[in-house]
Amino acid sequence: MKTDLITVSPDTKVGEAIRLLFGRHFRSVPIVDEDMHLIGQFSVRDILSLAMPCVAGMGLSGPMSDITFMPDDFEDVRRRLSDNWGDPVSKYALDDYIVLRPNDPMTHVVQALYRCRAYMPVVDPDTEKLVGVVSYWDVLEKLVDGIE
Amino acid sequence: MNFLAMLLQHGAPASAEAPHVVFGLDPLWVAGGIFVITYAVIMAERFNRAVVAMLGGGAMILLGVHTQETAIAGIDWNTIGLLTGMMIIVAVTRRSGVFQFLAVWSAKKVKASPWGILVMLGIVTALLSAMLDNVTTVLLIAPVTLLITEELEVPPYPFLFAEIMFSNIGGTATLIGDPPNILIGSLVDSISFNDFLTEVAPIVPVIIVATLLPIWLIWGRKLKATPEARQRVMDFREKEAIKDAKLLKKSLLVLVLVLTGFIFGHPAGLEPATVAMMGAALLLLLDNLGRTVDEKSENVHHTSGEVEWVTIFFFVGLFVIVGGLEQAGALNILASHVVGLTDGINDTGTISSVLAMSIMWVSAIASSVVDNIPFVATMIPTIHEALEQLAAAGNELNHAEEHAIWWSLSLGACLGGNGSLIGASANLIVAGFSERAGHPIRFLGFLKAAFPMMILSVLIASAYVYLRFL
After folding, report:
1. Chain B interface residues (partner A, CB cutoff 8 A)
2. ∠ CA(B108), CA(B453), CA(B314), 5° rounding?
3. Do B150 and A63 make contact, defined as CB atoms within 8 angstroms?
4. B366 within 8 A of B359, measured Cβ to Cβ
5. Is A65 on the interface with B (CB under 8 A)?
6. For labeling, which of A79, B96, B106, B170 is most exposed (least CB within 10 Å)?
7. How many C-alpha atoms does B47 have within 13 Å on its Cβ side?
8. Domains held by chain A: number
């Protein structure tokens, strides 16, 4: 688990958050209030959804899962993304992510990482504050290390 | 007699026909109690309505109002078969992409002008709702609408509002358009698919135009889109929306066959459920030609999963509950209250006018706040009973007068769905989509515009029924 946390506040602009993700090659960044309570996550998936019409992101088997009839070119897609550049990041943050607890059993952590395939926030159950993030690299490196 | 009832029965054994209710309680009170509690819990919307209806149905058997045999005999399998068959046909057909094609095509036909698109999508919604159920229709049209309005940079609300209105109005036009009509068509012997087409459908275009007018005054005249935005919609390639041209042909073939069956089947004794289920089976057969056995099994399994089983189980539960009321004699009492409205009147023309108008308006107001399916499911046997009581008193209604009463129930219950956001399932589905897309529809805001428009449509329907049938 990483405890030297990089986070953003709910008011952070979408553009700034995207620059942060790109600059550090992160897949997601936690959004926290001033007391370190977790409010959501902003991830590369959110960036992709901002570049699509909003109904296109409503689930893979959703009603608009196929929009090949829209002939948008590169510039159209970029325009859509840039339209949201100055919005606060909290407007688009996902809230359907899994949260880990510091004492979660290892099998649960592995299964959760397998499901979500990204960084996972770790939250203290007593204070509900964000205490760290876990990536599958952290876990796998540790696991693989001990194998002869 | 059921086991629990047998264990708990006190007092003298009841006659063979009468229900054997636990503790020798009055079946009327037990059935009435189950009915009131079940309907109240359904209205509170805290639990899934299908679960509540099935528990209510189970209670009717457990407490001895019904035996399992009488409970099952009370289920109208024609309604269940028709609903399931049509749901399967739609589940397969939608995969062809034809509904998205239709929406995009109609938007381009009016050169992507916002008002033109609102009218076109409204008409497409009404037409599809007349052939499919309303929830399915709005599930197909609302997402494309959100996409088009986003590209046009216009607010989606007026478009979605119109689609809610037109899904309920369009559904009124045919026997298969809306669950109340399916129930009426199935439970009333003298009414066929064609009767709906010739006797109810003609007023629907008038109501559509009358509803478009206030929509234009409130929103339509202010809708503007830039030429660039309109061009973006004109650049849509609707043909790309067709995902499977072969499946489209098969689906259209089956839809035509099914509609033909509905229209011509009735005189030949072919009930709608047979037609719909045969159509569903044929489409599943055609859709699976050329697939491996494993793929076929997977495909049929997947399609069956898309049937809205919650609605089907809801219907089953309701039929058992309403059957219990009937069994206990409660509907007789309700019917005599209905007949009581006409006390002292001895000419059948006035009797049917009073009944038809009361039923139309009570249905409309009730359906704008509660689910119209349980309402209509209770009203049909009640009206049957009332007609019998009238006939027994020497006031037998003629064919047109009787139809006027059934059409009043249909028009009131279907159009009443437009009265509020909770008036029909389709309304809530659209609201849900809109909210997920960041444009929540407010209950009161909707009510302010929708309720007067619903009243206007019921006024038109009342005038139509009165002038044509009474």
Report:
1. 97, 100, 104, 139-140, 142-144, 146-147, 150-151, 232, 235-241, 243, 433, 436-438
2. 85
3. no
4. no
5. no
6. A79
7. 14
8. 1
User: Min CA distance, B322 vs chain A (Å)?
Assistant: 36
Q: Is the ipTM of this complex over 0.95?
A: no
Cβ of B236 within 8 Å of Cβ of A68? The answer is no
Residue A1 within any structural domain of the chain:
no
3-state helix, strand, coil in chain B (%, to 5): 75, 0, 25
CA B447 vs. chain centroid, Å, equals 20
By C-alpha distance, the chain A residue nearest B243 is A66
The answer to whether position A9 is within a domain reads no
Q: Do B143 and A71 touch (CB under 8 A)?
A: no
With an 8 Å Cβ cutoff, is A58 touching chain B?
Answer: yes
On whether residue A2 sits in a domain, the answer given is: no
- Cα gap B328→B65, rounded to integer Å: 7
How wide is the angle at C-alpha B232 spanned by C-alphas B446 and B144, nearest 5°? 40
B contact test, residue of A52, A66, A69, A96 with most B CBs within 10 A: A69
Do residue B143 and residue A58 have CB atoms under 8 angstroms apart? yes
Taking an 8 Å cut-off on Cβ atoms, the answer to whether B240 and A69 are in contact is yes
Q: What angle do CA B392, B393, B394 make, to 5 degrees?
A: 90
**What residues of chain A lie within 8 A of the CB of B138, using their CB?**
none
Do B27 and B19 touch, CB atoms closer than 8 A? yes
What does the pLDDT profile of chain B (470 residues) look like in tens digits?
Answer: 454 555 444 433 344 455 778 777 888 899 999 999 998 898 787 888 899 999 999 999 999 999 999 999 989 898 899 989 999 998 899 889 898 899 999 999 999 999 999 999 999 999 999 988 888 888 889 989 999 999 999 999 999 999 999 999 999 999 999 889 999 999 998 899 999 999 999 999 999 999 999 999 999 999 999 999 999 999 999 999 898 999 999 999 999 999 999 989 878 888 889 999 999 999 999 999 999 999 999 999 999 998 888 889 988 999 999 999 888 888 888 888 888 888 888 888 899 999 999 999 999 998 887 778 888 999 999 999 999 999 998 899 999 999 999 999 999 999 999 999 888 888 988 888 888 778 889 889 999 999 999 999 999 999 999 999 98
Residue A105 lies in a domain: yes
Tell me the C-alpha distance between B391 and B380, whole Å: 17
Report helix, strand or coil for B118.
helix
Domain span at residue A80?
A: 14-145
B12 token code pair? 């003298």
Report the CATH number at residue A39: 3.10.580.10
Closest CA to B351 of B378, B292, B391: B391
Who among A53, A58, A69 is closest to B436 (CB)? A58
Look at B144 and A58 and tell me if their CB atoms are within 8 Å: no
| Contact assignment for B150 to A67 by CB distance below 8 Å | no
